Automatic annotation (TrEMBL):
Coiled coil: none annotated. This is UDP-N-acetylmuramoylalanine--D-glutamate ligase. It comes from Pedobacter ginsengisoli. Residues 311-424 form the Mur ligase C-terminal domain. Residues 109-288 form the Mur ligase central domain. GO terms for cellular component: cytoplasm. It comes from the Bacteria.
Length: 447
């Protein structure tokens, strides 16, 4: 391709990483963000001396591109994307662009839930085994920023469905699909089938030399597999049935079988991450490690000493016999279900925020069994009240993390768990889920 103008839409982690790499590759780079650009990213663009604009899109400048790199948050319905496509300018994701400039192998992990944990766990296992490995994508640094500034042999990448939508030539050497549950359906015409097809793009361009790891217990994955042609070696994992090759659970022992006569077994009590969903995450990571011929002792160690990320079932404190847990990263109903599944009974649940068309019915049984009070934390809590008024005696509205924690403190008795697991986005009262989690932790520490 001639080194013409590359236009990058969106100046967050993904867009700024793409700008770094495009400039390094000798393109004329223009970055355009319809919103305001965060100070940290503006400083990088200024340092690079890259031409950029914020709070607007200058259409003529954008339409002079040989290619457009679109940040994952921008939907195809956006008027500027329609204009670009009408003119026939190719639109790609930052991941697609970055892969052109590295010969490193990629391990790509997607799924509605558990992908961050599984990505971190897989990275931890490779690093512990001495691999020269980078971590990026939807977590930490963007893939493009890493390719521009580092030399790795392997990358472990967390990929969202939005990232996958704009990947065309890209191929994952090892692809992992954890599960498919309703999320972001507003971007997929409210059709689960469209979202599932988007997740299956993780297998595109794979050959018989590549690997696809998936959950054999996930109904939506099994459904979409029937209509998807997968060329790679497939390794399923299950906690319900025995797998000839892949991973399965039997009498609380995980078995991972890739090569004959070299089975890895591990008791679930040895896992650093507890809860049923984390058995799945650990199995998926374990299969990756076995595919890469990492020694069983090394895999066991990494599965046993892993520390999970901030804001995902993070234990904040125990005060007067009450546990306070920060699960602010739970921005959909399924994540909150997983959180409730992994804690005991007598839960005071803090939830709410920007509702993405949530269907709360899947939470009803779990809430009925385990939750004694719901504290709503959001501007509009009507749908939470409607969903759970028959299952919980106490539902209270609060409008700040401090107020929510104070109310929880007064409601909680010794042995209870106060769980922040919102099931919603955070943008009504907070900058993002990290801000929500940090404010919660500050409020707990002030008790």
């Amino acid at each position: 391709m001639e080194k013409g103008r590359i236009v990058i839409l969106g100046a967050g982690e993904s867009g700024v990483g793409a700008a770094m790499l495009a400039q390094k590759q000798g393109f004329d780079v223009f970055v355009s963000d319809f919103g305001a650009i965060a100070t940290q990213y503006k400083e990088i663009l200024e340092e690079l001396r890259v031409d950029f604009e914020e709070k607007q899109h200058t259409v003529e400048k954008i339409l002079s591109a040989v290619e457009v790199i679109k940040s994952p948050g921008i939907p195809d319905k956006a008027p500027i994307i329609k204009d670009i496509k009408k003119k026939g300018i190719p639109v790609v994701s930052e991941i697609e662009f970055a892969k052109r400039y590295t010969n490193a192998k990629t391990i790509c992990i997607t799924g509605s839930n558990g992908k961050t944990t599984t990505t971190m766990l897989t990275y931890h296992a490779l690093k512990k085994a001495g691999f020269n490995v980078g971590l990026g994508g939807n977590i930490g640094h963007s893939f493009a920023a890493l390719v521009a500034t580092a030399e790795y042999d392997w990358y472990v990448l967390e990929l969202s469905s939005f990232m996958l939508d704009d990947m065309h030539e890209f191929k994952a050497d090892i692809a992992v699909l954890l599960n498919i549950t309703p999320d972001h359906l507003d971007r997929y015409d409210y059709k689960l089938g469209n979202y599932a097809a988007s997740k299956m793009r993780i297998t595109q361009n794979q050959t018989a030399d590549d690997v696809f790891i998936y959950c054999a217990d996930d109904p939506e994955t099994l459904k979409v597999l029937k209509t998807t042609n997968v060329s790679s070696k497939m390794y399923p994992f299950s906690i319900r049935k025995k797998m000839e090759s892949g991973a399965y659970l039997e009498s609380n022992i995980i078995h991972i079988n890739i090569h004959l006569n070299d089975e890895l077994t591990m008791s679930i009590s040895e896992l650093a991450l507890q809860g049923k969903h984390n058995i799945y995450n650990s199995m998926a990571s374990g299969i990756v490690a076995k595919v890469l011929d990492i020694r069983n002792t090394s895999i066991r160690e990494s599965m046993g000493d892993f520390k999970n990320i901030e804001h995902r079932l993070e234990h904040v404190a125990k005060i007067s016999g009450v546990d306070y847990i920060n699960d602010s990263k739970a921005t959909n109903v399924n994540s909150t279900w997983y959180a409730l599944e992994s804690v005991g009974t007598d839960v005071i649940l803090i939830m709410g925020g920007v509702d993405k068309g949530n269907d709360y019915t899947m939470l009803k049984d779990m809430v009925h069994q385990k939750v004694k009070a719901i504290i709503c934390l959001g501007k509009d809590n009507k749908r939470i009240h409607e969903a759970f008024e028959e299952d919980v005696e106490i539902i209270v509205n609060t409008f700040s993390a401090h107020e929510a924690v104070q109310v929880a403190y007064h409601l909680a008795k010794k042995g209870d768990t106060v769980l922040l697991s919102p099931a919603c986005a955070s943008f009504d009262l907070f900058k993002n889920y990290e801000d929500r989690g940090n404010q919660f932790k500050t409020a707990v520490k002030e008790l």
